[in-house]
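Input (Uroporphyrinogen decarboxylase):
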Amino acid sequence: MSELKNDRYLRALAKQPVDQTPVWMMRQAGRYLPEYRATRAQAGDFMSLCKNAELACEVTLQPLRRYPLDAAILFSDILTIPDAMGLGLYFETGEGPKFERPLSSYQEVANLAIPDPEDELGYVMNAVRTIRRELKGEVPLIGFSGSPWTLATYMVEGGSSKTFGKIKKMAFAEPKTLHLLLDKLADSVTSYLNAQVKAGAQSLMVFDSWGGVLSPRDYEEFSLRYMQKIVDGLIREHDGRKVPVTLFTKNGGQWIEKIAATGCDAIGLDWTIDIADAKRRVGDQVALQGNMDPSMLHASPERIRSEVETILAGFGEGTGHIFNLGHGITPDVNPEHAGAFINAVGELSRKYHK
Ligand code: CP3
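Output:
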């Protein structure tokens, strides 16, 4: 078993005692950091940055040099799988991700192959191996993927969407087509995440960014069922350690009992649920990650501190909480405010761990 200098994050996920609440930030490597923008400019476009193991490693480590974070997250994107399936991912400035060949028919879905993680996605595994080496055991490395439903929304809509009109039409008019796609994505995500574990990822997170646009029944049918398939297929122990998995459905606060029942180790919470309620409902089964509104980082450092205190008090004493933002940090955040947030978690949380 490889030694970790700081294993607070893994201990909290396993509900073992910690000295203070571990903290990391969703999208902690990103455009709010000037050093990220410089490395990104050096790489050219975003995907070239993801495909260059040394530069992907560099941007992964940048936030850790600035802040006392308790975990690193692989620098990559959830859309690497659909790209490897041949949909042609590209980024239009200011408009987010797009696909050259979105899916619309059963035949197109039937023709999709499950990508080989060490071949078409070998650049991701190279990044994982490089980052693990360069982390030198400081903190654990989180690997990740999108959920099948969330990946399918981009693959069918052809990019980001506000209404999800095309994927919902497929769900209700051509359910067989969508289920075939979700099933192939569940298999792809499982082999992709397992390859990340073998390459060195010490914890896993599944981002279900768009599960929250579904009704409760449809969430179970089109999103949760396929995350369950992934949880069932994951390597849960490697190199003498448990490999915890966190499921994050944005806007999924009403379904946390069902998410906990998948057998995941932790649930990611956005900011629309009170963490005290979440703990009461599922806190004996899973750890909880979250749940500060990322927009709070625009507030004064004093206001950020008081929000951190409120969330810490909501969770209360003991282990099982990983502090995080309820969604990704945005490019317009002042890096000093991010630092005030992280320091506040460290300082204010000690009294809850005596
Ligand atoms: O530091 C980290 O957290 C690791 C890297 C990471 C990125 N994307 C880098 C990235 C992670 C974990 C993701 C996940 C991701 N990607 C999600 C799930 C989480 C969420 O936000 O809900 C989703 C939905 C995507 C898809 C995606 N990729 C979008 C919508 C965009 C555009 C975002 C924007 O703000 O323009 C991307 C591009 C992207 N992925 C960037 C980064 C740093 C910005 C690229 C750039 O211009 O440099």
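The chain has a mean pLDDT of 97.
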